[in-house]
User: Which sequence fits this backbone?
């Protein structure tokens, strides 16, 4: 018959230690609230909205897609229109892009770098 790895005395010592550890864990669990259902408080920072500005005459479609109500398709249309017709001179020029109306433009406008006023430019 094979000889056990641990003697009976060693087995009972290990069993006692495991029982004490389980009892200590159970006591700690009860002290911490057990099944009371209390919520754990988590420190959270205050939500800080981020602001960004985009230059419609330099931005690639991926940057433009971050604008409110502008997804990938519309962002690609903006770039395509800019490449075909040249740079946008005013924000109103964006109305020439299929899919941009006055409401959408008004929601995008706070995130657009202001375009220079043509009348204020030298040489005009």
Assistant:
């Amino acid at each position: 018959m094979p000889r056990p790895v641990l003697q009976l005395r060693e087995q009972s010592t290990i069993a006692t230690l495991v029982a004490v550890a389980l009892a200590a864990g159970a006591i700690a669990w009860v002290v911490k609230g057990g099944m009371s259902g209390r919520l754990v408080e988590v420190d959270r920072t205050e939500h800080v909205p981020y602001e960004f500005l985009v230059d419609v005459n330099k931005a690639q479609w991926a940057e433009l897609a971050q604008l409110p109500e502008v997804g990938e398709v519309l962002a690609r249309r903006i770039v395509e229109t800019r490449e075909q017709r040249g740079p946008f001179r005013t924000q109103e020029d964006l109305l020439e892009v299929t899919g941009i109306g006055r409401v959408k433009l008004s929601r995008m406008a706070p995130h657009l770098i202001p375009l220079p006023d043509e009348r204020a430019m030298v040489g005009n």
Residues 8-31 form the longest helix (24 residues). Helices lie at 8-31, 61-64, 72-85, 102-108.
